[in-house]
Amino acid sequence: MKQYIDKSMSYKQYVNLLDKLMAEGKTTGSNQSEDYLNYAKLNLARTHRLNKTATLTAELKEQLKKVKLPCFFLVLTEGWCGDAAQNIPTMHLIEEECKDIELKLIFRDENLELIDKYLTNGGRSIPKLICLSKVSLNEVFTWGPRPEAVQQTMHELKERNAQLAEKAEVIHKWYAEDKTRSLQKELRELIEKYLI
Questions:
Q1: Residue ranges making up the domain that contains 82
Q2: Structure pTM?
């Protein structure tokens, strides 16, 4: 895991890179199609909005005060990914709140051998959070690619072969209504179980 930590980015470096690429009319990864560029633009706007509006719950803040295991939150992501845009800003808030948690970001498409160890129902779904002990670099827990409630919704949409536009509309409407509460609850439970 050390090689992945060594080549990872901080959240600030990640957002700055996405801004720079967007200014050049690009996104991360090899797919630079018009569709992917449109996703990237929309999702970068979501990231910036959440950077301004998202806040941590009192319950999660309390748990973060009790963290005893220094760790990395290593997250596989891409700039065009809607779920990444909706979830990673909250992970950054966790990092800012807790000195023992450090968020590290790497691109999925540059690290296929890693994402292939963390498939979701056989797919390379992102974001994928791998919590690693800072001391041993052993895996502590994983999370992703999205909160369980919306993961179930996505599964149902795939089962009935919904079009991509419908999937995106339903999923992002869910995120807007949820306001990161489900993500925070799931991460709080994992932190309580493994880091305290």
A1: 2-146+186-194
A2: 0.96
